[in-house]
Amino acid sequence: MGRRKASAAKHATLFSDERVVVGVDDLVLLSSVSETSILENLKMRHAADVIYSYIGHVLVVVNPYKWLDIYGEDSMRSYMHKARIDVAPHVFATAEETYRTMLSEEDNQCVIISGESGAGKTEASKQIQNYIAGVSGSGAGVDKVKRTFLESNPLLEAFGNAKTLRNNNSSRFGKYFELFFDSAGQPQGGKVTNYLLEKSRVVKPGKGERNFHIFYQVLAGLPSTAKQKMHLDRGRPEAFQYLKASECYDVDDVNDAQDFEETMAAMQHVGIKRKQIELVIQTLAAVLQIGNVQFQSETVGDAEGSSVRDRESLQIACELLGLDAVRLEHALCYKLLQTMAPGGKIESYEVPQNMSQAKAQRDSIAKVVYDRLFDFLVERVNHALDIEKKAEKHGENLDIDDMTKIGILDIYGFEIFDQNGFEQFCINYVNEKLQQIFIELTLKSEQEEYAREGIGWSPIPFFNNKVVCDLIEARRPTPGIFLVLDDTVKTMHSRQGDSVDANFLEKVAGIHGSHPHFSKRGKTFEIKHYAGDVQYSIEGFGDSNKDSLSKDIALIISETSNKLMRYIFPEEIDLNDKRMANTAGYKMRTQCDALVTALMDCTPHYVRCIKSNDQKQSNKIDDRRVIHQIKYLGLLENVKVRRAGYAYRGDYGRFVDRFWLLSKETYPEFRGSDKKGTQAVLRAATKLLPQLENEVQLGKTMVFIQTPETFFELEKLREKKLGSFAMRIQKAWKKYFGCRHLLQLSHDITKLYTSNNKQRQRVSIYRPFDGDYLRDNTIREAVMEIIQHNKDSEKIVFMDEIEKVCPMAGISPEGSPVAVMGRIFVITDQFVYLMEKRTWHPILDPKSTWVPPLVYLRRRLQLTAIEEITMSTLADPYFVLKVRQEPLLVEPNKSNWVDNKSTMVCMATGRKFGLFNRRHHCRYTGKIYCSDVCKQLEVVPDLGFYTPVRVSDKVLGLMCTEMPEDQLLVSEKKTEIAVTLVDAIRSLANVATPISFSDSTLLRRAANARLSKTPSQQIQFVSSGHDIIRGDANSVQIQVAPGVPDEYIRKRRKREKTRRKRREKQREEELVVRAQRQEQRGREREAERLRRKSTKASMESARKFGENVHSTATNGSVVGANSELAAILARRRGV
C-alpha cells in the first residue's frame, strides 16, 4: 500500500508474525531433485508437524498419526478467498482452489485422493467436505443439503469402515461423492456412488482386525430392551462367530457406545425413518445370528452331506429376516442344480452339500444381505440429496444440467497382504486405473499437449502403467485377466469352486505367461503393479466372481415377510431362467469405467497421501517405506515435469473470458478472435507485470504461463479490477438506498437551521449527501488497515478529508494565533477516527516522481463519548465536537506485557538477545523485541504513557497519540457530518445528541496540557466581508462572509427538484438500453462458447475415430471375447 518510505517501518498486521517455512513448501523449489531430497524435505516438515507440501497443484500429505489443531474455524477462515501461493500448503487450500475454480471457470471439478491404506485419505476427504460446507453459502435449504452430506460420513463410515492392522478406521469401500452447485456457488444436491464393499470382512475379518464398526456399535450402544427384542441380549462380541474369529473387539480411543448414538443421529439426519432404522438394526442382528449357524457332517446316500447342528440361531435369523426357517435349512444343506435334457427339457436335482460347502452357502447369505443393506443406506443418502425431488417438494426450478459439481473420491488404497485374494485384486485394479488417470493428466497428456501446441519442451521419461491396466482389463487383442475369469466361471458354472479356480489359473497362465508384469507361482499368480509386486491366491476367485446366491436361496429370500428385505431384494426369481447374473469382475470394470469417465469430465485436483510408518506411531518416519511410496506415486517425475513445464495452460477463449476486463481493447466489448483478445489482454497486463513477457508462450489454440507466481499476480490484477468495479457499484448502491434517509436528515437539519436563524453557505444549499468522499484508493486502503487493526466494524457511514484547528506557538504573519491542519475524518457505526495524512517528498531517489502518502491514527473516539455538536449561527464551515473527558492514569497500563523471562529471542526477528542486541518491551503490544525493530519513540496516552516511549516499528501510526478533548473542525460538509453523527449515535445507543448554536465558545482541553491539540482561547464567530482568522493569546476571532438570502434558497430547491425528476427519467431509459445491450452480448458470447465446445467435441470425436481405425487395422476383425479366448488357447496348446 505504500504506507512507508524506504527508511521507515512498514505497517503490518500487528499480532501475526511471519510464518516460519520449514524446508520448502513446494517440492518444485528444491535445490536438487531426487527421491532422497524429497524424502528429506518431507521428514524435516513432518518433524515440525508440517504435514502438507505441494508439487505445483498436487498436494502431498504425510500422515502424522496424531491430531493436529489445524482444522478449526480460524484456520478455515485464513484460507478463504486466498490464492494457493499466498498461504501455507493445506488441504483447505486445495478445497478453496477447487471451489473457487468451479465458480470462476463454471466447470466441473474433482478431488482425487490416493495413497495406501492408512495414509489418511478418509480424513483428507472429510476435511475437504467440511471446508466446502463452510464456504458455500447458507440458507434453510442449503444448510439441509450440507448437513445431509456431512452426516453421511459417520453413517457410511460406521457401515463401511473397520479396524485393520494398518489403520484403525480403514475404508473398506470406495466412495465418490458429488455435490451439485447453482450459479451462486450454493449446494443444491448431491450423489454418493459406492464401490466394492469388502463383503468378505462380514464373515471373515483378519486376525487382529475387526468386522465393520456398526456391529460393535450396536452391541455397545443398543438399549437392553431393544437387545432382547433383537435377540442380542448375550451382548458381547465374543458371543458371535463373525466377530469372535478375529479375536479383536476394541479399538484404542474409540467409544463404540458413543459412536452408536452418532450413527443413529446421522441416519435420522439423512432422512431414514425410525421404523426403517429399527429394521436396519434387526437385519444386522440377523447377520450375526447367521454366523452362529453351525453344521455337522452327515452321510446322504453315498455322498458326504451335512445338517444344521443348532437350529436356534437359524430360527432367530429367519425370524428377524422374515424367512421360512425349514426351507432355508434345506437350501443350505442341499444345492439345486439344473441340466438341459435331450429335447430342451430342463431337469432339476438336489446335491447334498458337505460342511464346508454349507458354510459357504451360509456365508454367502450374510455377505449378500449386508451388501444390499449398505446399498440401501447409500440410496437413502442419495434420496435426501436428490435435486429433482427437492425441486418438486419446494416448487423450485432446479435443473441439474445447469449446475456445476465437485466430486471427491475417497477410495481404498493399494493393498499388499500376506494373503491376497479376489477383493485385493479388484482394489488394486482400481488403484491402477487411478494412477493411469494421474499419469494421463499430469505426466503424459501435459507433455503431449506441449508438442501438439508447438511449445518448446524436453521430454521427461516416466513409467506408464497402461500395460498393467491392459493386462487386467483388456478385451483385445489379448483378453485380460478379468475376461479370462468371466469365461472360466461361465463355462464351468456347475463345477465346484476349487476346480474353477485351478482352471482359471491354467488359462490365464497360458495366455499371459510371457507378459513382463505377470508370473505364475504354484497356486498363485503375481502381478507387478505400479505400487509393488503382489501375489494373489486363486482360492475363492471363482466363487467371489460369481457374486450371486444360488437360485433356490434367492427364491426363499424373495418371499420374505420383512419389508426392508423385500425392498433390498426386489428381483423375481425364475428357476427355469438359465441366464447367469453379471459377475463381480464385470460389475467392477463397469463401475470403474463410469468412475474414470466422471473424473475425466472434471478438472482434477490431487491429494497424494503418504503413510509415515506401518506401526501407526506419531513422530516417526520410516525412510524405506516413504521412499517406496515416493517411487510408485511418481512424485519425482511429477516434480520434474512441474519444474520444466507451465503452471497455467488454457485455451484462448477461456483466457479471454477470464481476463478480458484487464484491457481497454477487450472490455467492455470485443469483436475479434480469441487469440487476438488474448494478445490484447497480455499487452495490457505486461505493463503492470513485466515478467509476463518472458513467461508466456502462445500455442496454436492455447496460452501457457510458466510460473504459478506470475499467474497468481495476473489473478490479483483481475481481482483488483473487479474490486474497483465492486466498490463503484457498492457506492452507487449505498448512495441510492441511503438517498431517501439522508434526504430526510437533510430536511430535519434545515428545519433546525431555520428555527435557530442559522445562515447558509451557497455551496451547502441542496447539496446531496453522499457519505464517502475519499477518492484516493491508496489512502482508503491505509484507512481500512487502521480500522481493521482496531477490530472495528467496517461499516463506514462517512469518510472525507477535513481540517482541524490546532494551537500555535505565537502569532502567524497573517495574524492568526491558531494553525489549520489536515485530517481524515471517518465515522463508522461505532467510532469516530481522526487521522493525519503525511506526504513524503522523493529526496533520496531523484528519479522517483511520487511517494505514496502515509496515514497515522491521531484519535479514536467512541460515538457515545460525543456529548454535543456546536455550530455558530453564521455561514461558516466550522463545527465543534464536545467530547467527554477522561482522567489521567496514575500508573501506565502494563497488563498485556509479556514476561521478561519467557523469551530469549526477539519476537519479530528471532535473534537472540545479548550484549549487543538489547531487549525492549513495546509499550503498545507488550511484546519483546530487539533494538533493530523497536527504535521508534511515541506517546501512548490510552495506556498511560504521556511521554515518548519505545514502540515496535510495526505499530507506528496504528495507535492513538492524542488525548480525548473537544475538537474544532472545518468542513464544507459539516451539515452532513452533524446529522450523520446524530443518526449513528441514535442507532448505536438510542441517545439523542444535541446540536446547539452559539457564536462564542470555550473548548475543553485534554487533562495533560502538553499533549493538547485544542486552542485554549475563547472562540468567537464574527460576520464580515472576508473569511479570515485573527486573535491573540486570549481569544480567536473567526470572521466569515454573510450567507445567501432565503429567496435564493427557495429557487435553488425548485430547480434541483426539476433536475432530479429529469435525471430519474433519463436513468430509466438508460437502464432499458443497457439491459438490451447486455442481453445481446450474452447471446453472442453463449453462441461463441457453444461453437468452441462443438469444435472441441468434433476434434475429440475425430481423434477417437482415428484410434479405433488404427486399432482395427492392427487387430484384424473384431470377434467375441469367448471365441478369441478359445482360439488363443488352441494356438498355445499347438505350440
Protein described:
It is built from 33 helices and 35 strands. The strands form 10 sheets. The protein has an 8-stranded mixed sheet with strand order 23-22-21-20-30-25-24-31. A hairpin with a 2-residue loop joins strand 1 (52-55) and strand 2 (58-62). It is an alpha+beta fold. Among the domains are: 292-360, Four Helix Bundle (Hemerythrin (Met), subunit A), CATH 1.20.120.720; 422-547 and 582-598, Methane Monooxygenase Hydroxylase, Chain G, domain 1, CATH 1.20.58.530; 888-953, Herpes Virus-1, CATH 3.30.40.10; 1068-1135. The protein is elongated, with a radius of gyration of 39 Å. Residues 592-614 are annotated as: Actin-binding. ATP binds at residues 115-122.
Low-confidence stretches: 1-18, 1109-1125, 1131-1135
What is the alpha-carbon Rg in Å?
Answer: 39 Å
N-end to C-end Cα span: 80 Å
Strand order of the largest sheet: 23-22-21-20-30-25-24-31
Tally of extended strands?
35
Structural class: alpha+beta
**Outline type:** elongated
Q: Based on the coordinates given, report the CATH architecture of the domain at 422-547 and 582-598.
A: Up-down Bundle
Strand content: 15-25%
Major sheet: size, sense and barrel closure? 8 strands, mixed
Domain TH1: 758-1042
Domain Myosin motor: 22-719
Region (Disordered): 1054-1103
Biased composition (Basic and acidic residues): 1065-1089
